UniProtKB/TrEMBL annotation:
Gene name of the record: cca
Alphabetical list of SUPFAM superfamilies matching this protein: Nucleotidyltransferase, Poly A polymerase C-terminal region-like
Organism lineage: Bacteria, Bacillati, Bacillota, Bacilli, Lactobacillales
Family listed: Belongs to the tRNA nucleotidyltransferase/poly(A) polymerase family. Bacterial CCA-adding enzyme type 3 subfamily.
Function statement: Catalyzes the addition and repair of the essential 3'-terminal CCA sequence in tRNAs without using a nucleic acid template. Adds these three nucleotides in the order of C, C, and A to the tRNA nucleotide-73, using CTP and ATP as substrates and producing inorganic pyrophosphate. tRNA 3'-terminal CCA addition is required both for tRNA processing and repair. Also involved in tRNA surveillance by mediating tandem CCA addition to generate a CCACCA at the 3' terminus of unstable tRNAs. While stable tRNAs receive only 3'-terminal CCA, unstable tRNAs are marked with CCACCA and rapidly degraded.
Name of this protein: CCA-adding enzyme
Note: A single active site specifically recognizes both ATP and CTP and is responsible for their addition.
Oligomer and partners: Homodimer.
Length: 397
């Protein structure tokens, strides 16, 4: 057993000594059997949330209405969820009500895929009611039970299928893929924020082709915001990805460049996907640089605006779209810039005011001009020379 499970064993033992059942469940069991590192350990139990809270000194109600309590043990938090059965879904999104049950089998039955429906006892024994171990070995994604019904209940599961295929390099079995194709339009009912999470995992997975191919062939892509306006470009960029994109910013910058969006279209595009404003700003900058990199190098001002974080983003995107890899050279050129941040400029607004320049909007303009001239080596980053230049510029107005 991995160390994370060893550390959590006493928690399961405490629950069991009180007469309840407790199991490791979900991604951590799947990833352990695959020999992959695990991130969070999830526990499923027959005990009700109140019963769990009586058994442990330190707990946090992280999702008590869904039956989830976090148990804090030696600095680690364990999400512990009461066995549930989720029966009626009327809006294709989430169960109308959560029913707590005392049976593990009921709980495993409502899980999405056979490889995610494995449970493990504290002693390492695996409970496999849906042949998930065979599917893990054969590297297959298969819905638990009737695939048509499962996607009808919760349409997000279709995006989860393709993202697991990408992350694990698994194949979706034909029956499950056919059910996705038949229900793809239900994805439009899912909150964009939740689709976005799965889309990013799809693009950043280690084997993107394994997920992108069914994403395209099942038609799921058509029910993602904005994608149907860019069919040819989307398909082209998906076929180009041989390795996953490194992160969220790179993924969005790639799509923006592939769709050939203008700078003013980036904000509205990403807003439809409900990304943060911080991502929008970063993508605008990186996309501009990626555009330049398609045909030329970056000038000093572009290097400066991108900075150390966004240069690899712009470079990765340009490379995926066919440009040569220039990451090392770009970072070296950035290193050689006279200044790397506005803070490094040798004058401040206060210095300029002391030199007699009036406060106001033109002070900010002056500082921006000085910053540009220093970055582009038109002026040295020298306090006296910058003040002189500011006075000259101010008097010219
Ligand atoms: P990851 O490694 O990405 O966290 P995971 O399998 O742990 O993968 P989670 O989203 O953390 O995925 O969900 C934990 C478990 O809950 C899943 O393994 C699955 O058993 C169940 N689950 C999650 N979302 C759904 C869903 N939409 N429908 C059915 N079961 C689900
Ligand atoms: Mg998980």
């Amino acid at each position: 057993l991995p160390q994370e499970f060893e550390l959590a064993r006493p928690v399961l033992q405490t629950i069991e000594r009180a007469g309840y059942e407790a199991y490791f469940v979900g991604g951590s069991v799947r990833d352990t059997i695959l020999g992959k590192a695990i991130h969070d350990v999830d526990i499923a139990t027959s005990a009700y949330p109140d019963e769990i809270k009586h058994l442990f000194k330190r707990t946090v109600d992280t999702g008590i209405e869904h039956g989830t309590v976090m148990i804090l043990d030696h600095g680690t938090g364990y999400e512990t969820t009461t066995f549930r059965s989720e029966s009626t879904y009327t809006d294709f999104r989430r169960p109308d009500h959560v029913t707590f049950v005392r049976s593990l089998a009921e709980d495993l039955k409502r899980r999405d895929f056979t490889i995610n429906a494995l449970a493990m006892r504290e002693n390492g024994e695996v409970i496999d009611l849906f042949d998930g171990l065979t599917d893990l070995k054969q590297r297959r994604i298969r819905a638990v039970g009737n695939a048509q019904e499962r996607f009808h209940e919760d349409a997000l599961r279709m995006m989860r299928a393709v993202r697991f295929a990408s992350q694990l390099d698994f194949t979706i079995v034909p029956e499950t893929a056919a059910a996705i194709a038949a229900h793809a339009q239900l994805l439009a009912k899912i909150a964009v924020e939740r689709t976005q999470v799965e889309l990013l995992k799809l693009f950043t997975g280690k084997a993107p082709q394994s997920g992108l191919q069914p994403f395209l062939t099942t038609g799921l892509w058509q029910y993602c915001p904005t994608f149907s306006d860019h069919e040819a470009a989307l398909k082209d960029v998906c076929h180009r990805l041989t390795t996953g994109t490194p992160d969220e910013t790179t993924t969005w910058t790639l799509l923006v460049r592939a769709f050939d969006l203008s700078e003013s279209e980036v904000g509205p595009f990403l807003k439809q996907w409900k990304t943060s404003n911080q991502i929008i700003t970063a993508v605008q900058t990186a996309a501009r640089a990626a555009t330049s990199l398609a045909t030329a190098d970056l000038d000093a001002w572009q290097l400066y605006q991108c900075g150390e974080q966004l240069l690899p983003v712009a470079n990765s995107v340009a490379v995926i779209l066919g440009a040569p890899d220039r990451e090392t050279a770009l970072l070296a050129a950035w290193q050689a810039l006279p200044i790397k941040t506005k803070k490094a400029l040798a004058v401040t607004g206060r210095d300029l005011m002391q030199a007699g320049i009036q406060p106001g909007p033109q002070l900010g303009d002056l500082l921006a001009q000085l910053e540009h001239q220093v970055v582009t080596s038109q002026l040295p980053n020298d306090r006296d020379q910058l003040i002189q230049q500011a006075l000259t510029l101010a008097n010219l107005k």
